[in-house]
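Practice problem: predict the structure.
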Amino acid sequence: MRPPTHLACKSFLAAGVLAALLGGRAEAQQLQALPVPPQDWSFRGATGRFDYASVQRGFAVYSQVCASCHSLRQMTYGDLSSLGLDADQLHDIAASQPVPAGTDAAGNVVLRAATPGDHFRLPYANEAAARAANAGALPPDQSRLAGTIQGGPSFIQAYLTGFRDTPSSVTLGPGMHYNIYVPGNAIAMPDVLHDAHVRYTDGTRATTPQMAHDVSNFLAWVAQPHLEERHRLGIRVLVYLTLLLVLVAVLKRRVWASVRI
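Answer:
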């Protein structure tokens, strides 16, 4: 699947993301990962739209759970305005996050409150610090995760709900966890979602499947923030081409109507 080039790159990125997630394999045996259950996402199709209530809840899951390990390097706090947040909400969210603002005279990093124009705060100072905190595994950036990993948001949702107790017949490597949806069933990331782990302000019950669905929706939106604009543009182009075809057909009939054979 090398040609075209952009597909080969996408496949390479997906493999790299999955390798970063896995971080190792089961020592005793390689088990077959279960197929990812299909999901009916609202944003699929030419007229698909994001479920913004779910996306907002997914942001709550990311900020309260995922952000401690995973970055969103390509997102600014101001980008959240597309979720329907007003200027005051954006300011409050950004101001709650300390970001680097250079160093002082002694060389120590100085922190300041973020602004809507700042990119999301990085959870670790550098890659070495990230690996040291995660038993050698590097938590992948989630900016484009839903668009690069095989299975997309459906895989992310399945993965987050796929943790199980390790069977007695399986021996995992140090720091590994058993997950039925990943190759070899061995994953470096632990099970991080538990019922009521996150508080939803809209009253939705924060069960593990609900949180997994919402954060997968959020990451799908992060990976394709302009998806709905492209859908609307595509519909306009189709309408324009249809009208143009009708006009050309009418013009053709009028031109040839005066021609006698």
